[in-house]
# Entry
Amino acid sequence: MYQHIAFYKFTPLQDLPSLQATLSAWCDALLGSVLLAAEGINGMLAGQAEALDAFEAKLTDPGFCNGVFVGTVFKRTDSATQPFQRMKVRIRPEIVPLGIVGVNGADTGIDVPPAEWRRLIRRDDVVVIDNRNHFEFEYGHFVGALDPGVTNFREFSEWIQERLPAWQAEGKTIAMYCTGGIRCEKTSAWMKQTLGLPVYQLQGGILNYFMQQPDAEQDYVGSCFVFDQREALTPDLKAIRRDESA
# Structure
């Protein structure tokens, strides 16, 4: 049995090549990918529990990189097989590719813990938005969520701005969710900083909701697409392929 971790943190980083080399050495017993950018880190790794424990301990050590990774949240799930084929630590312009310059991902929206999310999304004055691509929505989504039907962020930002005046006129509150939380954090940061709009977001995303809410299927229909060879996870965190859920 393998284990899988997903993690990210928006925090200013310097000397990315040196950090890349260090993390690559730490991942010699792991497979997956880690993205580094000036805005932070975003990673998905899989391997034996002991190797993942060691990586987490090193990354969050207060003495490493002046402690900038302290507090990083790791979402861990089981995997019957190794979900990745290679190990890569890459340097990128962004850790989540939204293509927007000058957005501070650390100045984000309002986190809603999974235990409170159910009550929030059932309110009549709340617009629930799926902050993922259309194909991911088709795998599964929260009941009542709107699908912007997008394939890239430019489409999403245009979709939001077209509908925002009507929502504001109706006194609506906006709540968003995504797979693991990172996309929502940066998107809500853009909406807050550019549009002056406070946004509620599901803390830790769908995967955290599945982990924290044993009856998640009450609110979530279908499965959650994940970006590895498991393809998708059901609300009870079982790997499933799309043709198996039909």
